[in-house]
């Protein structure tokens, strides 16, 4: 989810954004650490991940609503509509799928989704935090513009699998919600290639700017 460049509104805004990004990084790092530790300590048994990660996930992902507000009030230069859609899609997976049907949390796709989300978010929030301080380490730039090749398909595939796993429960609970989940999943079909190609385009621009700087 893009958060955009820092606002020119002053030191207080930048200090707040720095605190927000650091706190968000810590939250996602705990999700990543908990997920990986659980898998290692339980010899790859992914059925235990959900119960351990869920308390963190509820708070950290729901707090991302603040990013829509940041964009709306001009704290960051990110499109409100795009930011809102991306936050909403995550909240849909958390509250509309996993909260509604917690039994699906024992499926392996929950663990792969947590790994993809948490790595991507740790990179993103640490990038924004260091950018606010005026210097982004080279490895963060590399991670931001390269890891999506793996993390984005992994995340989307896990999300669709989560929705698929929830369908029998949704059908038993409410047929309308069952069709709602199917309709929402269909949005991924045209959306995935568009967003993926957009990120590829952003990477090309970044790599081009790097080459131009080296040639100067």
Automatic annotation (TrEMBL):
EC top class named in words: lyase
A cellular-component GO term for this protein: endoplasmic reticulum membrane
Gene Ontology molecular function, alphabetical: very-long-chain (3R)-3-hydroxyacyl-CoA dehydratase activity
Membrane spanning residue stretches: 12-33, 53-76, 97-120, 176-200
Primary localization class, coarse: endoplasmic reticulum
EC number per UniProt: 4.2.1.134
Membrane topology recorded in Swiss-Prot or TrEMBL: Multi-pass membrane protein
Functional pathway: Lipid metabolism; fatty acid biosynthesis
Reaction(s) this enzyme catalyzes, per UniProt: a very-long-chain (3R)-3-hydroxyacyl-CoA = a very-long-chain (2E)-enoyl-CoA + H2O
Range of residues in the leader sequence: none
A Gene Ontology BP annotation from the UniProt entry: sphingolipid biosynthetic process
Keyword terms of this UniProt record: Endoplasmic reticulum, Fatty acid biosynthesis, Fatty acid metabolism, Lipid biosynthesis, Lipid metabolism, Lyase, Membrane, Transmembrane, Transmembrane helix
Localisation per UniProt entry: Endoplasmic reticulum membrane; Membrane
One Pfam family cited in the UniProt record for this chain: PTPLA
Sequence similarity: Belongs to the very long-chain fatty acids dehydratase HACD family.
Its biological purpose: Catalyzes the third of the four reactions of the long-chain fatty acids elongation cycle. This endoplasmic reticulum-bound enzymatic process, allows the addition of two carbons to the chain of long- and very long-chain fatty acids/VLCFAs per cycle. This enzyme catalyzes the dehydration of the 3-hydroxyacyl-CoA intermediate into trans-2,3-enoyl-CoA, within each cycle of fatty acid elongation. Thereby, it participates to the production of VLCFAs of different chain lengths that are involved in multiple biological processes as precursors of membrane lipids and lipid mediators.
Protein name: Very-long-chain (3R)-3-hydroxyacyl-CoA dehydratase
Species of the source: Lichtheimia corymbifera JMRC:FSU:9682
């Amino acid at each position: 989810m893009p958060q955009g460049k820092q606002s020119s509104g002053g030191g207080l805004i930048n200090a707040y954004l720095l605190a927000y990004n650091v706190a968000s990084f810590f939250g996602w790092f705990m999700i990543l650490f908990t997920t990986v530790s659980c898998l290692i300590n339980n010899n790859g048994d992914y059925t235990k991940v959900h119960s351990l990660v869920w308390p963190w996930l509820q708070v950290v992902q729901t707090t991302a609503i603040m990013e829509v507000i940041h964009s709306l009030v001009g704290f960051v230069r990110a499109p409100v509509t795009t930011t809102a859609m991306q936050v909403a899609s995550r909240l849909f997976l958390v509250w509309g799928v996993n909260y509604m049907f917690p039994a699906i949390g024992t499926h392996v796709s929950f663990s792969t989704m947590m790994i993809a989300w948490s790595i991507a978010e740790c990179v993103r929030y640490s990038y924004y935090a260091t950018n606010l301080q005026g210097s982004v380490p080279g490895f963060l730039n590399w991670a931001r513009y390269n890891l999506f090749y793996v993390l984005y398909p992994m995340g989307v595939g896990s999300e669709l699998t989560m929705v698929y796993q929830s369908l029998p429960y949704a059908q038993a609970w409410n047929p309308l919600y069952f069709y709602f989940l199917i309709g929402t999943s269909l949005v991924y079909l045209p959306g995935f290639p568009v967003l993926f190609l957009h990120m590829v385009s952003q990477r090309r621009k970044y790599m081009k700017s790097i080459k131009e700087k080296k040639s100067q």
